[in-house]
């Protein structure tokens, strides 16, 4: 009997031990010995949720590569039983739900590994969550009494596993800290971005990526009070934590400033006690709205970035510049300590966090620092572009309504950058700051952020009217909507008879999606290269014509065209005649048949992985159009005659025989599209008219200016050199670009396009070719930072152009029209380059 009792007791003890497993016990290795693949991370948190009653897993989506996205939630048993009430009470503080909260519990959300190769973060997440959830930890009860802890252990599982699998293949059995060893050199594209090689830490406001969009849906269900985002930086840096560096956006509240100080001092005490080095108030600012610290900050939370020295190069351990080995174990412990500090300060300040959060939403619409309080977006003749913007506002929970007929209004005209009078119609939209998402609204629409320091970590201007190519106005006063917005039901196209031609517009991304779908289906489509009038209606150049002639053998032709138009919500017109009232008849040679192009995109070593990813994403997730990907260093092996279009993302990788091969293909009828840095591969070469300067005298004059600038920098103080250096840089400066509307590259774009300039490259007008988009005067500068030495160089420059070579040509896109996939208006320029130029 005693033996049976002993056996039962042994089984019970074993079960209890299993139920309280740390990451080391569960995974079978100590933290820092290896990187954990995502499926094992999932297993561990599932284990905790199944063995601890106060732990809950919430799956909020999956990645492109079908890895699960989830958060783990832990709090006291009492709070977990009341979890939904706590959550909805918090939404009442924001005004997103009506009513008065009956609970006061702080919500602390900690996100790890948004950059995949900053892979220490997920390891630290498991350690930190376990310490908070461990029932044998005497501090747990106090920590969780008044706080909900939400941990997202890996925000970028695809990137994280790309890095983990690679490193586990390359790592040595014995620790090899030699920086020259192969395990310290990730191959292109590295593990930092997601599947589409996009930077998820710059996508929060735009939500172009599946991971971000799914996560922010969950974020809006909680609206946390504290949001801590864990990263790594270069191996020679120690550790960074809040307070943040300047510039800090003027909309950041006094309490948000104060709490960053509270956290910073608490964390500093822990690091000081261990003799660990760190820095604060440097480099990592709070300005650009799509970061994992700024987006929460502009939503009332205390957003904070954490950065440990190491990153992808460090692996399990690597020597830094001092000759010290920075190990994975050290990096984990440091991030874990920063995480425990966040849990502590949340617990100690829980009631105040909840109260200040409520105050933020009560007072933010009356912030005197915010210049513009209302924004009007014109709806007439730009409804399809407007639809795209409204979808973004919906994702961000920003409210809007119809303007109604009003006159005598005055505000800043985004197009001119000047104050002007205007009126509104029933189709116009009003977005004002008098709503729960007041601060975020003002920041996304502000023409230009006020910079207290011009050294910034990212771009300085992102105003949505420019990004979406919309005519809009910013007002300094409150302007209420005349009536709530109610999207008019799309009036479905129907098959009605057998029209000679279907006519479709061309001025928004969804029109390019429609064209791609038509071409994939095998429906012959044409484009009118001239404006025309027919049946009393006017149509712009770029209008699509789907003619019965040429499609008479397509099965279910009418039904297919109509169904595709309805899918994309595109209103079709019809005509039973090719004879137009004005312009070119439909049978004219200037109404071109659009060949379904076979497109290849160059990637691999030497190309910008981010720009490559933007284009790849555009084809797969927006155009849904076939794309071949070619490795840059293997171009010599490929038969380029298989392709009509070759897209060259930013970078410098065509040289020698590969350059010659590409040019032979162009001259034989191919079309190359060079983006941003790739444009330079064709500059100042014999046989090309692309050049930085018009004349040799102009080149020498600029060289003289540059030399004088360098002398000034050398004579300046050492500490001012970084500040002097930005005088020749651009950080998201918006310029009006004059477009030649007669050229296919500009179809649907309009007379003026607003480019986001993020580099100092300048090119003179093409002497042989077409200067489609130009900056003809410095009056075309609108907003955003550009250095005082660089800005004058932008005068009389080519931004978008086409140079013909033999039977083909090169499209030069000096500024990236696909920037982070959120610069919506630029996507039409890329579509024009792909489908129309050179047809």
UniProtKB/TrEMBL annotation:
Q: Which UniProt keywords apply?
A: Hydrolase, Metalloprotease, Protease, Signal, Zinc
- According to the record, the signal peptide region is 1-19
Q: Does the keyword Cell inner membrane apply?
A: no
- Sequence ranges assigned to domain Peptidase M14 in this UniProt record: 35-305
Residue ranges of the TM segments: none
Which PANTHER family would you find in this protein's record? PROTEASE FAMILY M14 CARBOXYPEPTIDASE A,B, SLL0236 PROTEIN
Q: Which cofactor does it need?
A: Zn(2+)
The domain of life is: Bacteria
Give the family this protein belongs to, as stated in its UniProt record: Belongs to the peptidase M14 family.
Q: Output the lineage of the source organism.
A: Bacteria, Pseudomonadati, Bacteroidota, Cytophagia, Cytophagales
State the protein's name.
Answer: M14 family metallopeptidase
């Amino acid at each position: 009997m005693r033996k049976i009792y002993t056996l039962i007791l042994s089984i019970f003890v074993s079960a209890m031990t299993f139920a309280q497993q740390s990451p080391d016990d569960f995974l079978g290795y100590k933290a820092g010995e290896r990187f954990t693949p995502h499926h094992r991370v999932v297993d561990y948190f599932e284990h905790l949720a199944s063995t601890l009653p106060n732990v809950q897993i919430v799956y909020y989506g999956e990645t492109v590569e079908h890895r699960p996205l989830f958060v783990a939630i832990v709090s006291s048993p009492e709070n977990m039983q009341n979890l939904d009430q706590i959550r909805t009470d918090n939404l009442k503080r924001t005004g997103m739900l009506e009513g008065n909260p009956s609970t006061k519990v702080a919500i602390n959300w900690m996100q790890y590994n948004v950059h995949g190769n900053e892979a220490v973060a997920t390891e630290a997440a498991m350690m930190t969550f376990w310490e908070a959830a461990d029932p044998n930890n005497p501090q747990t009860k106090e920590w969780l009494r008044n706080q909900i802890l939400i941990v997202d252990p890996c925000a970028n599982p695809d990137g994280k596993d790309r890095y983990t699998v690679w490193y586990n293949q390359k790592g040595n059995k014995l620790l090899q800290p030699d920086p020259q060893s192969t395990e310290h050199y990730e191959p292109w594209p590295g593990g930092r971005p997601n599947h589409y090689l996009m930077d998820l830490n710059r996508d929060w406001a735009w939500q172009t990526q599946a991971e971000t969009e799914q996560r922010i849906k969950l974020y809006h269900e909680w609206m946390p009070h504290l949001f801590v985002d864990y990263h790594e930086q270069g191996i020679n840096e120690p550790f960074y934590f809040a307070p943040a560096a300047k510039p800090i956006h003027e909309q950041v509240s006094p309490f948000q400033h104060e709490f960053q100080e509270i956290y910073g001092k608490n964390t500093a005490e822990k690091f000081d006690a261990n003799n660990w080095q760190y820095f604060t108030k440097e480099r990592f600012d709070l300005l650009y709205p799509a970061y994992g610290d700024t987006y929460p900050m502009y939503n009332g939370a205390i957003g904070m970035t954490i950065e440990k020295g190491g990153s992808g190069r460090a692996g399990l351990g690597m020597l830094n510049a001092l000759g010290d080995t920075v190990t994975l174990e050290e990096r984990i412990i440091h991030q874990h300590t920063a995480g425990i500090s966040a849990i502590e300060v949340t617990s100690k300040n829980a009631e105040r966090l909840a109260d200040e959060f409520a105050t933020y939403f009560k007072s933010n619409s009356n912030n005197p620092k915010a210049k513009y309080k209302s924004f009007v977006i014109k709806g007439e003749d730009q409804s399809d572009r407007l639809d795209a913007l409204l979808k973004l506002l919906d994702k961000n929970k920003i409210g809007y309504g119809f303007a109604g007929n009003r006159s005598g209004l005055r505000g800043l005209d985004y197009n001119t950058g000047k104050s002007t009078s205007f009126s509104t119609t029933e189709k116009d939209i009003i977005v004002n700051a008098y709503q729960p998402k007041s601060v975020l609204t003002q920041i996304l629409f502000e023409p230009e952020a006020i910079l207290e320091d011009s050294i910034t970590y990212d771009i300085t201007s992102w105003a949505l009217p420019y990004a979406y190519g919309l005519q809009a106005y910013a007002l300094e006063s409150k302007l209420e909507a005349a009536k709530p917005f109610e999207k008019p039901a799309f009036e479905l196209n129907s098959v009605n008879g057998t029209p000679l031609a279907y006519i479709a517009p061309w001025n928004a991304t969804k029109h390019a999606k429609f064209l791609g779908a038509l071409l994939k289906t095998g429906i012959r489509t044409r484009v009118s290269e001239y404006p025309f009038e027919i049946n009393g209606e006017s149509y712009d150049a770029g209008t699509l014509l789907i003619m019965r002639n040429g499609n008479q053998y397509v099965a279910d032709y009418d039904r297919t065209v109509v169904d595709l138009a309805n899918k994309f919500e595109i209103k079709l017109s019809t005509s039973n005649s090719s004879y137009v009232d004005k312009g070119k008849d439909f049978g004219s040679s200037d109404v071109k048949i659009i060949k379904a192009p076979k497109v290849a995109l160059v990637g691999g070593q030497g190309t910008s992985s981010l720009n490559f990813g933007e284009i790849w994403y555009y084809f797969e997730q927006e155009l849904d159009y076939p794309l071949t990907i070619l490795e840059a260093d293997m171009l010599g092996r490929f038969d380029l005659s298989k392709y009509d279009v070759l897209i060259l993302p930013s970078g410098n990788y065509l040289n020698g025989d590969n350059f010659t091969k590409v040019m032979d293909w162009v001259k034989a009828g191919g079309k190359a599209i060079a983006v941003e840095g790739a444009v330079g591969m064709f500059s100042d070469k014999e046989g090309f008219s692309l050049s930085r300067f018009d004349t040799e005298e102009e080149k020498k004059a600029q060289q003289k200016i540059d030399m004088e600038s360098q002398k000034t920098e050398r004579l300046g103080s050492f500490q001012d050199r970084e500040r002097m250096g930005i005088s020749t840089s651009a950080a998201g400066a918006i310029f009006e670009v004059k477009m030649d509307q007669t050229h296919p590259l500009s179809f649907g774009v309009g007379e003026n396009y607003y480019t986001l300039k993020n580099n100092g490259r300048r090119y003179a007008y093409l002497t042989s070719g077409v200067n489609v988009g130009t900056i003809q005067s410095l009056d075309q500068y609108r907003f955003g930072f550009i250095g005082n030495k660089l800005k004058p160089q932008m005068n009389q420059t080519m931004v978008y152009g086409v140079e013909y070579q033999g039977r083909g040509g090169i499209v030069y896109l000096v500024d990236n029209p696909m920037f982070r996939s959120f610069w919506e208006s630029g996507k039409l320029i890329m579509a024009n380059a792909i489908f129309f130029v050179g047809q």
